[in-house]
Inverse folding.
């Protein structure tokens, strides 16, 4: 947690850092094996890293623990799916449109909840998410195709539907790159300073002239936009959605967990968390499966408790303290 | 006809609301005294319902009698949970409490699914099938007994909190932690008792609810949210607020479920929650800064 208070460096500085190496490595990773399942795991890992990174923007850097992201995800997924299925509009239009729509939703939620203290904020965002889920469930009940929406399979770039796995993997990777660059840009900019100031002490930041509602709303909106894009991609990738899956809080909890385990308020944290935990999750859900499918979530719950009690900084904190130790030893050895 | 329906719904809602209130009071105790935001509250209710169910299955004990086993058990579980998890979160930021208790909820929910599968299970009390007719009002015994017992327990809890040394110590800590500490109250020990009591309330509710609602692993989250809504609606740390909040929420649930659609009940009470939180964050009966 020590890093979060340190001053952010310039945008271009440290571009040869381990983070960049990690991303380059991940970019090459889909080529290591041509097995579709391997690439499927990577696609999901990238997608969840993308979502975790988006959530981390407001909740890690901004310290606003939001549970409304389930709603943004669902709004994005449904906008893309409905536009594509009912109106035959390309998902490439649907993704950003879903993003914009969820920014609108986010600003409503923001207006309602930003004045609230931490605990009330968490609860209210959850209430918003659940309320929107209920509303969608009610709305979709009347649709003649049943509760869920199936996306017709019609391969083609404009339809964001492909015959094989690789394009999906690289689109997810591209999304991840975009959010990493944006996160890097935001956190090294003035707004990033404001956001940290708000996280440390909102009243102090306000009295120093930071327009706290505006900054919070801006980052919240940004986070919502990316989450909705992720939701849209998820809908196209999975081919079937229904209110209880895309608005599910457990789905959101997954990427929140990846961000926490990896390390909140760091850029590499959510990526590392996803890369490690997504394959584990798929293993638990897919391989063990059936009756034991709950085992993954059970272990997740235990991990969450342990992380918070033992190492609240997550994986990144461990890496940092380890590298510090190694550096100190190296320096002592050279003296 | 309309009047009769509304009267019927209102009476049913009041009965359910009183049971909800007891559940919410458990959450309120933990939040007010220990200042821990317990997102696993509903999961503990789920667990209590399972305990009641299994006691019923194994020993054939009536759900209302199983409280003799489940309540002490849950008091003890509360102490264990505080020792193992919550104790470490006391001075941490609120977000870490949220994350950890969320983790606890996740582990309990999926642990239950793992051990007991996702089947719906229900335990019938000997009096469960009977129905009481008063004029045109129809009451079922499970709701009636649950509400009466809950009401008695709430009254007992009130007496305990206001007229015994321990109860006063609990309220003192809720009011002013530091002052209570300097006055010589063993704050650390009271925390254990408060959490134990909070979960004991949940254990009672589990026994009262299972005769009319079957248990399955994911039932908890709805109840967690329900409890939070009730607590916030009535006012943090206010016993009577919980009672009022419980009845209002149950009324909304009944009315919206009957006149609009059952799917929309969640929507309705979350909208109410958001309105309350933005208009009067202290709740209907809450006074600012006062807990329990």
């Amino acid at each position: 947690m020590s890093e979060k208070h340190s001053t952010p460096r310039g945008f271009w500085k440290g571009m040869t850092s381990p983070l960049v190496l990690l991303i380059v490595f991940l970019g090459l990773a889909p080529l290591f094996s041509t097995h579709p399942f391997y690439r499927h795991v990577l696609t999901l890992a990238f997608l969840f890293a993308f979502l975790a990174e988006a959530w981390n923007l407001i909740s890690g850097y901004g310290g606003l623990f939001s549970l409304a992201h389930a709603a943004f995800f669902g709004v994005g997924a449904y906008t893309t799916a409905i536009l594509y299925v009912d109106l035959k509009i390309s998902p490439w239009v649907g993704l950003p449109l879903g993003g914009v729509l969820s920014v609108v939703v986010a600003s409503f939620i923001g207006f309602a909840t930003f004045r609230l203290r931490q605990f009330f904020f968490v609860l209210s965002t959850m209430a918003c998410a659940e309320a929107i889920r209920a509303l969608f469930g009610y709305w979709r009940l009347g649709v003649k195709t049943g509760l869920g929406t199936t996306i017709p399979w019609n391969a083609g770039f404009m339809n964001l539907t492909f015959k094989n796995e690789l394009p999906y993997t690289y689109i997810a990777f591209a999304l991840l790159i975009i959010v990493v660059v944006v996160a890097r840009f935001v956190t090294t900019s003035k707004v990033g300073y404001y956001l940290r100031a708000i996280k440390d002490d909102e009243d102090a930041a306000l009295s120093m002239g930071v327009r706290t509602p505006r900054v919070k709303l801006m980052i919240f909106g940004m986070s919502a936009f990316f989450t909705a894009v992720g939701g849209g991609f998820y809908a196209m990738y999975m081919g079937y959605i229904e209110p209880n899956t895309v608005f599910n809080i457990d789905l959101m909890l997954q990427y929140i967990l990846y961000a926490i385990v990896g390390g909140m308020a760091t850029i590499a944290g959510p990526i590392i968390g996803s890369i490690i935990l997504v394959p584990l999750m798929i293993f638990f859900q897919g391989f063990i499966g059936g009756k034991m499918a709950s085992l993954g979530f059970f272990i997740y719950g235990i991990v969450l408790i342990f992380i918070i009690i033992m190492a609240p900084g997550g994986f990144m904190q461990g890496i940092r303290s380890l590298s510090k130790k190694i550096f100190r030893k190296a320096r002592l050895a050279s003296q | 006809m309309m009047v009769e329906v509304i009267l019927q719904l209102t009476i049913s809602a009041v009965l359910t609301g009183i049971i909800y209130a007891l559940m919410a009071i458990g959450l309120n105790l933990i939040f007010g005294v220990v200042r821990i935001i317990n997102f696993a509250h509903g999961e503990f209710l789920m667990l209590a319902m399972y305990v009641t169910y299994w006691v019923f299955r194994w020993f054939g004990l009536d759900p209302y009698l199983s409280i003799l086993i489940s309540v002490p058990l849950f008091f003890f579980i509360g102490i264990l949970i505080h020792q193992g998890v919550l104790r470490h979160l006391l001075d941490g930021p609120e977000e870490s409490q949220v994350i950890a208790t969320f983790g606890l909820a996740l582990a309990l929910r999926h642990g239950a699914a793992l051990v007991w599968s996702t089947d719906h299970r229900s335990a019938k009390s000997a009096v469960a099938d009977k129905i009481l007719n008063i004029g045109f009002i129809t009451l079922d015994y499970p709701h009636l007994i649950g509400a009466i017992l809950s009401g008695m327990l709430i009254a007992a809890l009130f007496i305990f909190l206001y007229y015994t040394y321990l109860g006063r110590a609990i309220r003192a800590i809720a009011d002013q932690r530091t002052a209570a500490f300097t006055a010589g109250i063993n704050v650390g020990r009271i925390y254990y008792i408060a959490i134990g009591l909070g979960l004991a309330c949940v254990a009672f509710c589990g026994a009262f609810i299972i005769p009319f609602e079957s248990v399955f692993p994911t039932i908890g989250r709805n109840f967690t949210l329900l409890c939070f809504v009730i607590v916030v609606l009535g006012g943090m740390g206010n016993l009577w607020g919980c009672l009022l909040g419980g009845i209002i929420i149950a009324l909304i649930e009944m009315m919206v479920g009957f006149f609009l659609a059952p799917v929309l009940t969640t929507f309705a009470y979350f909208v109410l929650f958001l309105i309350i939180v933005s208009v009067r964050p202290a709740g209907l009966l809450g006074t600012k800064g006062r807990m329990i």
